[in-house]
Design goal:
The complex is a heterodimer. Chain A has 15 helices and nine strands. Chain A is α+β, with helices and mostly antiparallel strands. A six-stranded mixed barrel of chain A has the order 2-3-7-4-6-5. Chain A starts with a helix and ends with a helix. In chain B, the strands form two sheets. In chain B, strands 7-8-9-4-10-11 form a six-stranded mixed sheet, sandwiched between helices. By secondary structure, chain B is α/β, with parallel strands linked by helices. Chain B is globular. Chain B has a single domain, classed as Rossmann fold (3-Layer(aba) Sandwich). At the A-B interface, helix 11, helix 12 and helix 15 of A face helix 1, helix 2 and helix 3 of B.
């Protein structure tokens, strides 16, 4: 490592070759790297949550979903609608029926949302793929877990319509569980039940009408990156479909949570700057230590022809070395944090509160550059203070003091 | 012809006047000794000539160039290329071997060390410290350390060799040897030699004597 440091300037070695200075510098680098890691990991956790959450949400409804604002709520997917999708270049859309129900299994009951889907178009929109035979249902993984349901088990679902002879009491129907679906969002995994659309339409007596259309906008980007595009398509669809339909983006259901996470990220990032400031004070201590310990060398160098500009160069070179290795080490620390988040159960989130279980670190280059750059600015500011202290003392006075 | 012309030189440290306005000249390739009691201003004069500080008033003109007119960068270059300093405390960096210590002025001035290495080796052989070049300063005797210090001061062939009590840390035999050596080397390098000392034995070896008292040149 010492040899590597020499590339930053031949005179840097004078400070580095001194064991106590070197050890102090290593301590400073570790402290600074740890502070940078905390800030970036926090931002990464927030962005990771945002990303994972949005990706999981998209998995359950596609980019945009459209439902009728009318009283009845059910509508036909007519030629006009299909023409509108074609005009906007939308090829992936899936009409579905969604209703509420109760699922009964193993002497327990859960309120669920039952969706009637066309597996092929639904897969194209959401990427969710599961076998769905005519009399089968697919249930969310959390629901299966809580009610101890396995594939091929039988469950009972309640339906509101059709039992006139029993004075409007719900119809109970028995289904085989053909698949267990994982969306990645706790509430979705706990509440969603899927069956063939035509089967559900028949059970509800809706003919071939639906109450939701899920669709994807024509874009190759990840859901995380296409927020603006989706918003734009949402406006276009609103204009085309008019007031009798509501057009919502996939994050609509949890928009306040996503917004809160963003605000929290900014607030925490600012607060965490104090951690860097504390680490910077350690750097200041190091600068003062170097000043005191190597003042003889520095005054001697000046006597030998080192200009103030040259001294500034060495000084900032040293600070840059500290900064460079701190940044490098912080990246290693971040990798360790990411690994720990994935491997230690005590670092996992309670899914029922935070909706997703495992936290991922997602730190984009912009955040790395921003945090590294701010740290460098802080370091240069502190170094400048150290240099001012040294500049105040003329060489002659310094030599006299040091060589007396 | 003079190498250095000093006109009405004044240096104040706060309220204390270390040098109180005098004129002085130093000739090319001549050897001078400056003597005086403690606080007489002899070291201050030496350091001002070396460009380590700036006078409060008056001027020091070296080879036709007024040092006061030089900016920080130019003054640093002057110290690096034109002046060689020999201090009482040689101050060799303990973390570097002697050769690296000798190379310091070259490295500060951006001179390739390979270019000066043959001359340094020759000088070290001449001063009988060639075997010390790869040793660390703590492995050397006081006399050897001072000779390494002299090689460092001469490494860039300065035209002005300024020595502040160069024998102050040595016994009389070694002190005498170092003085003879400094004179011989200054002659060989064509440098003007100015030595500050309060040792009469050392002073007696010089032909040009400058006596200072209370910041003035004593007649």
């Amino acid at each position: 490592m010492k040899k590597l440091l020499l590339i930053f300037g031949p005179l840097t070695e004078i400070f580095i070759k001194d064991k106590s200075s070197f050890r102090f510098a290593v301590g400073i680098i570790i402290g600074l790297a740890f502070s940078i890691c905390i800030i970036l990991s926090t931002i990464g956790i927030m962005d990771g949550f945002d990303f994972t959450f949005k990706r999981a949400l998209k998995k359950s409804v596609g980019d945009i979903y459209i439902y009728s604002s009318g009283r009845e709520g059910f509508y036909q997917v007519d030629d006009k609608m299909k023409e509108n999708f074609k005009r906007l270049g939308i090829t992936d859309y899936s009409p579905l029926v969604q209703s509420e129900s109760f699922l009964i299994a193993n002497e327990e009951t859960k309120g669920v949302i039952i969706r009637g889907i066309d597996p092929l178009t639904f897969k194209a929109v959401t990427t969710l793929s599961f076998p769905l035979a005519n009399s089968d249902v697919a249930i969310g993984s959390e629901l299966a877990s809580q009610l101890k349901i396995k594939i091929n088990d039988e469950v009972v679902l309640t339906f509101v319509s059709g039992e006139n002879e029993m004075n409007g009491l719900p119809v109970l129907k028995r289904f085989r569980v053909g698949a267990i679906v994982k969306h990645g969002i706790y509430q979705k995994d706990l509440r969603l039940v899927y069956m063939e659309r035509s089967k559900l339409q028949a059970l509800l007596g809706m003919g071939n009408r639906v109450n939701i259309i899920s669709l994807n906008i024509p874009s190759q980007k990840e859901a995380y990156e296409q927020i603006n595009e989706i918003s734009l398509f949402q406006q276009k669809l609103k204009t085309l479909f008019g007031f009798s339909f509501s057009v919502k983006p996939f994050w609509n259901e949890y928009s306040s949570l996503i917004e809160a996470v963003q605000i929290e990220k900014k607030a925490i990032s600012l607060t965490l700057q104090t951690i860097v400031v504390i680490a910077i004070f350690n750097v200041l201590a190091f600068v003062i230590f170097l000043n005191e310990r190597h003042s003889r060398s520095l005054f001697l160098f000046k006597a030998m022809g080192l200009s103030q500009k040259g001294l500034v160069k060495i000084w900032f070179m040293l600070v840059s070395v500290i900064w460079f290795f701190s940044c490098l080490l912080s990246i290693l620390f971040i990798q360790a944090v990411d690994w720990a988040l994935g491997h230690f159960s005590f670092l996992q989130l309670p899914s029922d509160i935070y909706y997703i279980g495992r936290l991922n670190l997602l730190i984009d280059q912009k955040n790395y550059i921003l945090v590294f750059f701010i740290t460098l600015l802080w370091l240069f500011l502190i170094s400048w203070i150290g240099l001012r202290r040294m500049k105040k003392q003329p060489i002659l006075q310094g030599l006299r003091k040091e060589f007396a | 012809m003079s190498l250095i012309k000093i006109n009405k030189l004044v240096k104040k440290f706060g309220k204390v006047q270390a040098l109180s306005g005098f004129d002085l000249e130093f000739g090319h390739e001549k050897h001078y000794v400056i003597q005086g009691a403690s606080g007489s201003g002899k070291s201050t004069l030496l350091y001002l000539m070396g460009g380590l500080d700036r006078p409060s008033s008056g001027s020091i003109v070296i080879a036709g160039q007024d040092l006061s007119s030089l900016d920080d960068e130019a003054l640093a270059l002057y110290r690096n290329r034109f002046v060689g300093f020999v201090f009482q405390f040689h101050f060799l960096l303990p973390t570097m071997n002697c050769l690296d210590n000798i190379f310091l002025p070259a490295r500060i001035g951006g001179v390739e060390t390979s270019k000066i290495k043959p001359q340094i080796t020759k000088l070290a052989e001449h001063l009988e410290v060639a075997h010390c070049l790869l040793k660390y300063p703590f492995e050397l005797s006081g006399g050897e350390q001072q000779r390494i210090n002299i090689i460092r001061a001469l490494s860039l062939r300065p035209k002005l060799l300024l020595c502040d009590e160069p024998t102050g840390n040595l016994d009389s035999l070694n002190g005498q040897r170092v003085t003879v050596l400094l004179k011989a080397l200054a002659k060989e390098f064509g440098a003007t030699l100015v030595v500050v000392t309060h040792d009469d034995k050392v002073a007696s070896q010089f032909e040009n004597h400058i006596i200072m008292r209370d910041g003035k040149i004593s007649p």
